[in-house]
Write a structure and sequence with these properties.
The protein has 125 residues and is mainly α. Helix content is 60%, strand content 3%. A two-stranded parallel ribbon has the order 1-2. It is globular, with a radius of gyration of 15 Å.
Length: 125
């Protein structure tokens, strides 16, 4: 219902995997549900547009889900997909899928870029 950056940031920090507005159409609702079911984060198009207007420098901690941030942290620690999967009880293939989604969302092309980007944007410590 609210397209307020603070409200959205608080909800995402609390563990929400997505945010859509009350007036969201059926197609976008289906897209949101499918994305979240895959473990991805989803923000409605209107929310994304508003966040871009409000703050030119994106707070990338809220672009990624809590699980994606956790995986970035483990990647930065040098863990393999198998080790990450064992640590958080998912398959290495799912870890790979998360990594690909993370890299797509952040528009990076290598693990080195991912780690540098994550450090620069305070996604990881």
């Amino acid at each position: 219902m609210f397209c307020d950056k603070v409200v959205i940031a608080d909800l995402m920090e609390a563990g929400a995997n997505g945010y859509i507005l009350k007036n969201t159409g059926k197609a976008e609702l289906v897209e949101a549900l499918l994305s979240i079911a895959k473990g991805e984060t989803f923000l409605s198009k209107e929310v994304n547009e508003e966040l871009k207007k409000v703050n030119e420098k994106t707070d990338y901690r809220f672009v990624l889900s809590a699980r994606e941030r956790e995986i970035v942290q483990y990647i930065a620690q040098g863990l393999s997909h198998t080790e990450i999967g064992e640590k958080i009880s998912i398959s290495p293939r799912t870890v790979d899928s998360h990594r690909n989604n993370i890299m797509r969302k952040l528009n990076v092309n290598s693990i080195a870029q991912l780690i540098r980007f994550a450090l620069q944007n305070k996604i990881i410590d």
